[in-house]
Amino acid sequence: MAAAQEPQVSEAQIAVHWREEEYYFPPARFVAQANAADPDIFERFSEDRFPDCFKEYAELLSWDAYWHTTLDTSNPPFWKWFVGGRLNASYNCVDRHLASSRNKAALIWVPEPESEDTKAVTYQELYTRVNEFAALLQDFGGVKTGDRVTFHLPMVPELPVSMLACARLGVIHSEVFGGFSGAACGGRIADSESHVLVTIDGYYRNGELIDHKAKADEAVAAARAQGVEVDKVLVWRRHPGRYASKSPMVDGRDFFVDELLQDYRGKLVPPVSMPAEAPLFLMYTSGTTGRPKGCQHSTGGYLAYVTGTSKYYQDIHPDDTYWCFADIGWITGHSYIVYGPLSLGTTSVMYEGVPTYPDPGRPWRIAERLGVNIFHTAPTTIRMLRKLGPDEPGKYDYHFKHMTTVGEPIEPDVWRWYHQVVGKGEAVIVDTWWQTENGGFLGSTLPALLPMKPGSCGPGVLGVFPIIYDDDGKVVEAGSGSAGNICIRNPWPGIFQTIWGQPERFVETYYAKYNRDKDSKDWHDWPYLAGDGAVQAADGYFRILGRIDDVINVAGHRLGTKELESATITVEEVAEAAAVPVIDEVRGRAVEMYVALKPGVSPSEDIEQKVIKAIETEIGKIARPKRVWIVSDMPKTRSGKIMRRVIAGISNFADVGDVTTLANPEIVDDIRHQVQSVKVSSGEVPRELSPEEVEEIKAFGQAE
Amino acid sequence: MTQQYLAGELSLLLGELQSVAPNEAWTRDLARLRHEAESLPSPALSSVAVRALVLTDELCWDSLTRADTGAFARQAELSAELHEFGVCAGLLEDD
């Protein structure tokens, strides 16, 4: 078994793999009914209309007070959208639909066991449930506007109810994916300093009722170990009145929500009018260091963005039955199961379980039974459904007008199966590119107005202007066939506001690389670094190549350099670390670690052993470095970036390239002498590298 | 890309394997892998998936050695699920 190959970004690789695909055009029947069918929309969202173009999205919402400034750039890159405006997200997703659609299904929840009935939650019922739980949170939970509440909930209706209850109170919710461990949940509780955890006793997965409450106990303990005490654990029950967990309830801390709700029946809580820039929720994502990143999303900008993109890109109409087959525990679910669709007053389908349970025909049975006409899922799920039931869609009588893929690049042949077999050749596909940090889509075709091209997400979405830079900040032109780092030149309303509690990391990770002037208040000087590699074809469509983090492939195991370096700097004496690959006849590639020590610390074999031990402990024995080199300093650019390419060249006895621009070029010879003399004396001089290997070593470090 | 869900699914599968681990040592090893899936950046997921499969293989052999067919059957089922997911998610190469 080998790990799959990392998508490459080198030009040589692109030349091999890049092939232009043919266009597919949207059916006339789709165009005729589309929300965005007039090409004039491109003019309305052109760059010279920025940022006011996004008023069109904001005007889809109900505001308590209109904004006075569309985009405030006074504190870059902490952009503020619709400043002065006030609104409530819960009101926008629930209350405002009551007048016209009180008895329409807001949510249709499909339990995993087919023996259980599907449950429809009307807008009226959602309103009632959200109000009652908001009252409980406020009164019993003691939470107030600005507090954080963590959820560890699976795909049950109680999750959107809890989210909207928090939004109603101006409380910041932080949902942790239900499948994550209690420890992971505890880390996120601690980071957000939540004192209330909302969970459930159990849920179905693959035909089994999973004991979920046990994880709450682990989460509380993990949070406590990190200095945060959870005061209350509110436990929904999968079957009210019947406890599904073996984990005992802790007296005075754990409470059954269904029992508490008896005291809040019929209670109404007025929605709190929130400033547009108030945080709505945190969504954690793993980072390159151990501490997860709590992406903080705003109320007004985020809600406007997901509502606008749901309308134009998902083509959601109020009478559609829309199914985003994702988990609300991820940003896709927040934006395109809950906030976007409900803000537009449509019917959003939720499914509790595994896509292939009890068989790979399940999704299509659901689609047929519920009359789903918009379908949205990830390439991994599509591949799985194709593999396990390639002919299943044809057995069911459903008809999609629109399908989405999200989350990763989709191969053209998988795309074609999705189009021909799942979509029966009748549906448009939008292949969307975006990330947790972005709130909503960044790259996609506008379905009625732009043709689809398998494997490409399309151009930047309305009002979003992507660009590809090379490592030196030069623009990589469309049609050049070259890959680079995809960036967004301008702010957009859905962009996250900061990393919760880590504003420096926010600036450093997403803006520092291509910032032209750190004192500038002009957004043009602050391109956003998305962290993905991409190629732009001559037609302006982007093909996304995956993360740009460097990877060393050791015997089929892909090891991220950042993981190796993060593990190394856990050794107290180490100040800086750099991981590089060396050509290895047995394993293909091996890892060599370069470390610089803290001032006053002397090199020793003991420190080398500590580094090896730290890597083995943090990552595993497979990552054990072949060598640990303690050097007096690292070769660095003037901005302080370690030049891994130079070190990799030394380790492999290869050309180190131009070093004249380094801040400390003299260190290169010192390191070369130190490393290569040891290797020569111990017979470790590698054979002559092949041209491909030379290119690989030269390209190493380009991702930084 | 929004690949957090791959980390989530992998974590979930590792959690299920934890529940069929025969002793503390296996549970600890699986917990460590699960922690990696939940906290490391997405390029690390392939490595986690490969090591999880290796560990699962060892788990299955251990159960067979102890003639615990019940545990073996469940572990083998989860191993197949893990493999299927890894391949479809692009974390593992198909054999």
Observed structural traits:
heterodimer, A: 704 residues, alpha/beta, 8-stranded mixed beta sheet, 22 helices, globular, B: 95 residues, mainly alpha, 4 helices, 77% helix, 0% strand
Describe this structure as you would to a colleague:
The complex is a heterodimer of chains A (704) and B (95). Chain A has 22 helices and 30 strands. In chain A, the strands form eight sheets. In chain A, strands 12-11-8-6-7-14-15-23 form an eight-stranded mixed β-sheet, with helices on both faces. A seven-stranded mixed β-sheet of chain A has the order 5-4-17-16-18-19-20, sandwiched between helices. In chain A, strands 21-22-24-25 form a four-stranded antiparallel β-sheet, with no helix packed on it. Chain A is 29% helix and 21% strand. The two termini of chain A are 29 Å apart. With 95 residues, chain B is mainly α. Chain B is 77% helix and 0% strand. Chain B has helices spanning 4-19, 24-39, 45-65, 69-88. In chain B, helix 1 runs antiparallel to helix 2 (24-39), helix 1 runs antiparallel to helix 4 and helix 3 (45-65) packs antiparallel against helix 4 (69-88).
Low-confidence stretches of chain A: 1-18
Structural class computed from helices and strand pairing of chain B: mainly alpha
Number of strands of chain B: 0
Helical content band of chain A: 25-40%
* Spatial shape of chain B: globular
* Radius of gyration of chain A, in angstroms, nearest whole number: 26 Å
Outline the biggest β-sheet of chain B. Answer: none
Mean pLDDT, all residues of chain B: 88
**Number of β-strand runs of chain A:** 30
Structural class of chain A: alpha/beta
Spatial order of strands in the largest sheet of chain A: 12-11-8-6-7-14-15-23
Order of helices and strands of chain B: HHHH
Q: Give Rg of chain B in angstroms.
A: 13 Å
Percent range for β-strand residues of chain A: 15-25%
